[in-house]
Every structure is written in C-alpha cells, then in structure tokens.
C-alpha cells in the first residue's frame, strides 16, 4: 500500500448499530464479564472453556451481523480513492470486510490490529487459518500440528497488537486522522491521535460522545456513526 493520506481508526462504536455491542457503554461487554476472565492469555490458560464460549457467542453474533451505513460509507471512500485511505480497526467482527466486498474496496486498505474472529490460531505452533465455522472448543485441533490448543485469533490484553510498524508509519505521514466509535481507553490505539497530530495531521473525532482523548482532536462531531460518518464521507 502507498503511504495513505487519510488514516481512520475504528472501534466498537462503529459496529454498535449493527447489533455487535460495545465494551464500555451501559450494558457493554465489560459490564457483563470481567476482561481479566476472558481477554487475557492468563484467562485462556486458566479456563479455556469460558474464554472459547465467550468468543463463540460473539463470533456467531458477528457472522449474523450486517455492516451499517458507516461501514459502507468508509468502503465507498476507499473505493473512490484507491491507496489513499487506510482503515485501522480495533474490531474483530469482520464488518469492514463485508462492506469492502460490497463496495469493491481493496481489502489491503484494512489493518486488524486486534485480530479477527474469522481466523483460528494455534497456541502451540502459531499456525493461523480461516475458521471454517462452528464452535471452537478445547477439542478443536490445529490443522497444521494437530495440537488441541486452538484459540481465537484476537489480541488479548498484554499481547502485542498486529502490524504496529505499518500503523505508526501511516500515522507519521498522513494528512488526516479520523477516529470513529472508540472510547480511547485502550493502548496503543488510544495513543494514535497524539502520534498523528504530533506529525502534523489534521485530526477529527466522530463519536457518540467525546472520548477520553477528545482534547487531542482539532475537530469533533458527536452522534450516531450511521449518520455522522456518511455525512463526513459524502
Ligand atoms: C499491549 C480483543 C504491550 C479482541 C482487545 C495502563 C496505561 C496504558 C496502557 C496500559 C495500562 N495498563 C495496561 C495497559 C495496556 C493495555 C491497555 O491499554 N489497557 C487499558 C484497559 C488501560 N493494552 C494492551 O494490553 C494491548 N497490548 O499494550 O501490549 C506489549 C508490549 C510488548 C510485548 C507484548 C505486549 C492490547 C490491547 C488489545 C486488547 N484486546 N480486544 C476482542 O475481544 O474484541 S481490546 C478491546 O477494547 C476491543 O478490541 C476494543 O476495540 C478495544 C477498545 O474499545 P472500544 O473499541 O473503544 O470500545 P468501547 O466500548 O470502549 O467504546 C465504544 C465507543 O463508541 C464509546 O466512546 C461510545 O461512546 C461510542 N459509541 C457507542 N455507540 C456508538 C458510538 N459511536 C458512534 N455511534 C454509535 N452508535
């Protein structure tokens, strides 16, 4: 990918209107279950059944979910400006891909820094593959090494997010940084706006309400992503 002129960071809020739920809003996932019990390597080692069930429930919800107007608007922007727009998503729900396929956008313009529900990962040999569907259990075997240590390909707390070098290179060179549907609570993603602004980019927050990092943004528009993102794109 060429150096993108526009870098867009998305979080759970862009998928809220697709029925995916968020983490820290009222009724969010972290109000229902402790992240320490389901989203750390220690939790997986301690109780793999609980962790695998938590992700199975969310994967099934994602498989049934459809992108909303915000996902489609970003995909239209990417299709209209090939190579110029990079989406870095914290989401693992696959909704940006579904929108990109529908709008003919290049999937190379998408970085899943926290992984994807769509893949299985072997905690034994590190093999990653497209999850064929169905439940992921402690009996699931790695197609490469046969080990029964299969986990969802998502980045847990305490693990290094994916493709950070590419993310920071894009933040250092982009003209515009837009953050959509994220509370700004989780690092390193929460630090992206400061990186981009420090490198001279214009920064914009599109969110239901001001995030924890709102003070870093030159401009903010608050409202539902399905309304304010298409309004910004179009
Ligand atoms: C790492 C997995 C190092 C997949 C997730 C103290 C200070 C700084 C950092 C730390 C610290 N203590 C610990 C850390 C590090 C830690 C961290 O940041 N902890 C936080 C809690 C303080 N970070 C890490 O561990 C990261 N790794 O640092 O590694 C390292 C170095 C060397 C070697 C090895 C390791 C890894 C972080 C990734 C964790 N995995 N998810 C999954 O299960 O989904 S994080 C999880 O939170 C999700 O990925 C999610 O995307 C992410 C952020 O949440 P949001 O997306 O922002 O969602 P949230 O609900 O919070 O907010 C939603 C927003 O949308 C709200 O603002 C709301 O108003 C808005 N909204 C709602 N509805 C709408 C809307 N907006 C528009 N329209 C709507 N309709």
From TrEMBL:
<keyword id="KW-0808">Transferase</keyword>
<dbReference type="InterPro" id="IPR026591">
    <property type="entry name" value="Sirtuin_cat_small_dom_sf"/>
</dbReference>
<dbReference type="InterPro" id="IPR027546">
    <property type="entry name" value="Sirtuin_class_III"/>
</dbReference>
<dbReference type="InterPro" id="IPR029035">
    <property type="entry name" value="DHS-like_NAD/FAD-binding_dom"/>
</dbReference>
<comment type="similarity">
    <text>Belongs to the sirtuin family. Class III subfamily.</text>
</comment>
<feature type="active site" description="Proton acceptor">
    <location>
        <position position="114"/>
    </location>
</feature>
<keyword id="KW-0963">Cytoplasm</keyword>
<protein>
    <recommendedName>
        <fullName>NAD-dependent protein deacylase</fullName>
        <ecNumber>2.3.1.286</ecNumber>
    </recommendedName>
</protein>
<feature type="binding site">
    <location>
        <begin position="90"/>
        <end position="93"/>
    </location>
    <ligand>
        <name>NAD(+)</name>
    </ligand>
</feature>
<dbReference type="GO" id="GO:0017136">
    <property type="term" value="F:histone deacetylase activity, NAD-dependent"/>
</dbReference>
<dbReference type="Pfam" id="PF02146">
    <property type="entry name" value="SIR2"/>
</dbReference>
<feature type="domain" description="Deacetylase sirtuin-type">
    <location>
        <begin position="1"/>
        <end position="234"/>
    </location>
</feature>
<feature type="binding site">
    <location>
        <position position="225"/>
    </location>
    <ligand>
        <name>NAD(+)</name>
    </ligand>
</feature>
<dbReference type="GO" id="GO:0008270">
    <property type="term" value="F:zinc ion binding"/>
</dbReference>
<feature type="binding site">
    <location>
        <position position="55"/>
    </location>
    <ligand>
        <name>substrate</name>
    </ligand>
</feature>
<comment type="function">
    <text>NAD-dependent lysine deacetylase and desuccinylase that specifically removes acetyl and succinyl groups on target proteins. Modulates the activities of several proteins which are inactive in their acylated form.</text>
</comment>
<dbReference type="InterPro" id="IPR026590">
    <property type="entry name" value="Ssirtuin_cat_dom"/>
</dbReference>
<dbReference type="InterPro" id="IPR050134">
    <property type="entry name" value="NAD-dep_sirtuin_deacylases"/>
</dbReference>
<feature type="binding site">
    <location>
        <position position="58"/>
    </location>
    <ligand>
        <name>substrate</name>
    </ligand>
</feature>
<feature type="binding site">
    <location>
        <position position="122"/>
    </location>
    <ligand>
        <name>Zn(2+)</name>
    </ligand>
</feature>
<feature type="binding site">
    <location>
        <position position="125"/>
    </location>
    <ligand>
        <name>Zn(2+)</name>
    </ligand>
</feature>
<feature type="binding site">
    <location>
        <begin position="207"/>
        <end position="209"/>
    </location>
    <ligand>
        <name>NAD(+)</name>
    </ligand>
</feature>
<dbReference type="GO" id="GO:0005737">
    <property type="term" value="C:cytoplasm"/>
</dbReference>
<dbReference type="GO" id="GO:0036055">
    <property type="term" value="F:protein-succinyllysine desuccinylase activity"/>
</dbReference>
<keyword id="KW-0479">Metal-binding</keyword>
<feature type="binding site">
    <location>
        <position position="142"/>
    </location>
    <ligand>
        <name>Zn(2+)</name>
    </ligand>
</feature>
<dbReference type="GO" id="GO:0070403">
    <property type="term" value="F:NAD+ binding"/>
</dbReference>
<dbReference type="GO" id="GO:0036054">
    <property type="term" value="F:protein-malonyllysine demalonylase activity"/>
</dbReference>
<keyword id="KW-0520">NAD</keyword>
<feature type="binding site">
    <location>
        <position position="145"/>
    </location>
    <ligand>
        <name>Zn(2+)</name>
    </ligand>
</feature>
<feature type="binding site">
    <location>
        <begin position="181"/>
        <end position="183"/>
    </location>
    <ligand>
        <name>NAD(+)</name>
    </ligand>
</feature>
<dbReference type="InterPro" id="IPR003000">
    <property type="entry name" value="Sirtuin"/>
</dbReference>
<keyword id="KW-0862">Zinc</keyword>
